[in-house]
Amino acid sequence: MGPLQWGDVPTWIGGTGALAAAWYAYQTISSQRQQISEQQQFIAEQTRFMNEQRQNLELERAELRAVADDRRWAQARQIAMHQRRIGSDNDGHGWVVTVQNPSDASVRDVEVYFGTAYRAVRAFEWPPFDHYPQNPTDRGADPLPIPVPTLGSRRAARFVSQRWTAATAHDNRPTLYFTDDDGVRWWLDSHGKLEEALADSGP
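The chain above was modelled as a monomer; its predicted structure follows.
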């Protein structure tokens, strides 16, 4: 068995260089892959962080909107309307409605409609927190214009409908309209439903 054939020196040196170049390329690719992996991990962490920040901002905005909405409804929810049917078949049937403002601020442009077509025919000052159906003129109450321009804090007013048949009175239940201290227009129906009045929704 003869000696190993190592080839000539240039060939050996060339092979060694190619091996070194391959090793260098492998190391470079491995390093780049590691860098790419680290960058991807960093981007993923930043994305998670930004998503968490976005969710926190959305929650904060939702809380602020809820607080603002509660504040916007706070006074309107305090306004109370007490309605009673009055009359007889001989005298006709109608409604008396007592509007109370127990809030700390005034409300404006207060008026009561019966059904969609009939506005209260009379309005009077009324003792706060008294909604019994006596005739307001029997109590020495002062008449008020309609709509009532201002109903002050802890004040009340009474509104009286015209007289109809029993069926017509039944079909034309009262709805209260008023503007709160912030200038928002509201309506409150006879079932206690409170809504913001849109520009084209009524008085």
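The two ends are 117 Å apart (CA to CA).
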